Amino acid sequence: MGKTYIQQLFKAYNITVDAGRQQLFEEFMSDERNILAAEQIITNQRLLMDTWQFKNRLADIQQQQVVIPNATVGKAYTARFDFAQLKWEDFTWSGINGLEDIGLAYDTATAEIKGTPVKSGDFKIRLQYRLQGQAEETPLNEKLVSLVINPNPRSLWKDLPSDREGAFWKEDNVTAFAPLGDKHLVAASKRGRSHANTGAYRDDDFAFTHLADSGWSILAVADGAGSAIASREGSRLACNYIIDYFEKEFSPALQADFDALLAEYATTGSDATQKKLTRFVYDILGAAAFTTHKKLDEFAGGQGMSLKDFHSTLIFVLLKKYVHGYVIMSFGVGDCPIGLVHTGASDITLMNRLDVGEFGGGTRFITMPEIFKSDTFATRFGFKLVPGFSYLMLMTDGIYDPKFEVEANLDRLSAWQSLLADLGGQNDDRIQVTLDAPSEDTARQLAAWMDFWSPGNHDDRTLMIIC
Amino acid sequence: MRRLPVFFLLDTSGSMYGEPIQALNNALSGMVNTLRLDPQALDSLWLSIITFDKEVKELMPLTELVHFQLPEISCPQSGPTHTGRALEFLHGRVTSEVRKSTPTQKGDWRPLLFIFTDGKPSDLQLYREMIPQIKALNFAAVVGCAAGKAADNGLLKELADTVVHLDTADSATLKQFFKWVSDTIEQGNKSMGTTSQVVLPPPPQEVILIV
Fold first, then answer.
1. Is A159 part of a structural domain of the chain?
2. In which domain of life is the source organism classified (chain B) (predicted)?
3. Is the CB of A356 less than 8 angstroms away from the CB of B38?
4. Taking 80 as the threshold, does the pLDDT of residue B197 lie above it?
5. A158 part of a folded domain
6. Are residues A432 and A380 in contact, defined by beta-carbon separation less than 8 angstroms?
7. Burial class (CB in 10 A: 0-12, 13-18, 19+), B42
8. Residues A375 and A233 in one domain
9. How many domains does chain B have?
10. In this structure, are A46 and A104 located in the same domain?
11. Do B199 and A120 touch (CB under 8 A)?
């Protein structure tokens, strides 16, 4: 090897050996000292090249983008360095120190970061490693890898009380319990976490009354638009205007007309009577809705504000027990469902079609004049005569979104059965709402149940149950 | 669960080279960190970053904030600003990625668009062609940010509902601006009817609102 090197070296420097000196050159190349010198050069060259290659490799690893998934505080986490995919097959050892402080640990054998993070932040973790050919005693190489640990969203929600001095203030959380003829009303309305977090007001509202003389119950639930500045008042007024309207306008004469019509319907069930009944529902509930709209408009004007500032959805129901069964009449604008769960939870009637836009939050409000002009106005009414029922439920989207998720589920009995089971205690918090023996306690239980956790669903929640 | 999709279109043309791009990186990183502390955002926010210079790059496809990792944004030393092509690309992404409500699918919140530029479109004709198409996507807000003297407020105004002007693209100004962006994002997930625009929080002092 040494000989070849010397020959190549001389050639590179254009040193020629005359024919007469060949013997001398042979001796030169066979001299052990010269061979040794040549071999030393070769070894040194190799060392230089290897060292360069090694440095190069380290620099490559330094530059390499290594991405590990983000973690979340309180959530079990595993991230593995895939050595084959990272082209790290020349790693002979790897380790990470200091992960314990954030609740994680590194397993050298599996190259996994594991654990349940306890601290959030943007961390740079030091991955230490040794490459093939590196002696045991050499210092370890290091690469910084970013690890984002998200805070646990549950820990971030604040519960700031709303400003009692502010305009249109209302209680953050309310409950109600009342007998309604031979049924009971249990209701709760809670300010959502998204509002509690900023000390904002509850936009939802509800109201009800039972007209003891006639036996009619009037129930209303409304959800103020999150983007409208006075929607909390809009929802409150909408509910109260409906109650006012029927207390004043649903005269004994009008009620007598309805009673006669219903008796006719219950006995003959003819198309003609049904048409008259439909017309009646349309006229009286439609007038109530329109009056509410107008009164909201007047109120807004009186405040020097725009009607839009009071945007609110509205659902309301008129309920009465007759010898023929229960009459349930409804009106709805917006995305709050009214569900009638039949006796024995054997069937479900969704009393209204929801206004859901193509995007979230894109709904319609009682404060929009166009709803009364639209040809879909007639589809906003519902009428049902049933021998009996288990539950009648009015809810805002704060309940509907997490419990039904999509519109199609509102028509499915199984979804309502799940909700009933959930209310019956099949939930993470083991809270039971005793709807089979309704009392003041039931309303408190309902309010406690309403604190259920559902990621992404932090709107105000209102649920009114007639049982 | 409802998502709030937020798209960022960022100008990475030659004029951004150097300090401005560094300032942009820092400001974006600050914004993401701020958003991570908002429980609402952690639950619903999805972010996408698209850069445009001579080329349009989807630096980060629409990604949930929880999994989001901010990529390093770099830019060439010179070259044109293909804003029109960026809008064309964005249109495709929004059309395919943003979910609309159906009886069996939960629709997203209306998406937000932030467009940041320090110049004016080199492909003006395409830019103008794309404007009505972008508007038809029904964003809850389109916010334009014009940074520096060369930025054309007027052209941006044709596209965006709100245009803000930053005199300089330095670190402090951009940080302020993106703090405001995160405040705006926090406004994005509320019910507001089908077409009304999101109400923006008041901008910081360094920002001049172009009316």
1. no
2. Bacteria
3. no
4. no
5. no
6. no
7. buried
8. yes
9. 1
10. no
11. no
φ, ψ of residue A2 to 5 degrees: the values are -55, -40
Considering the domain architecture, whether residues A124 and A211 belong to the same structural domain is answered as no
If one counts every other C-beta atom within 10 angstroms of the C-beta of residue A88, the result is 17
- Contacting residues of B for A67, CB less than 8 Å apart: 69
CB A292 within 8 A of CB A316: no
Residue B195: what pLDDT? 53
**C-alpha gyration radius of chain A:** 39
pLDDT digits (tens, 9 = 90+) for B61-105: 999 999 999 999 998 988 899 999 999 999 999 999 999 988 888
Q: Which of residues 70 through 99 in chain B touch A, CB cutoff 8 A?
A: none
Nearest chain A residue to B29 by CA distance is: A122
Q: Of the candidates A153, A187, A208, which is a domain's last residue? A: A153
Per-residue HEC secondary structure of B89-102 comes to HHHHHHHHHCCCCE
Chain A residues whose C-beta sits inside 8 Å of any chain B C-beta: 67, 69-70, 72, 120, 122, 146, 148, 150-151, 153-154, 156-157, 193-194, 197, 223, 225-228, 308, 311, 356-365, 368, 397, 401, 405-408, 455-458
Mean pLDDT of A36-57: 91
Range of the domain at A323: 173-466
Q: Quick check: pTM over 0.90?
A: no
Give the helix/strand (H/E) hosting A57. helix A32-63
Q: What is the pLDDT of residues A213-238, one digit of tens each?
A: 999 999 999 999 988 999 999 999 99
Same domain membership, residue A125 and residue A13: no
Smallest CA–CA distance, residue A17 to chain B, in Å, is 56
- A355 CB-side CA count, 13 A: 26
Q: What is the CATH number of the domain that holds A239?
A: 3.60.40.10
Supply the range of the domain harboring residue B92. Answer: 4-210
Q: How many domains are contained in chain A? A: 3
Residue A329 in any domain: the answer is: yes
3-class secondary structure, A434: coil
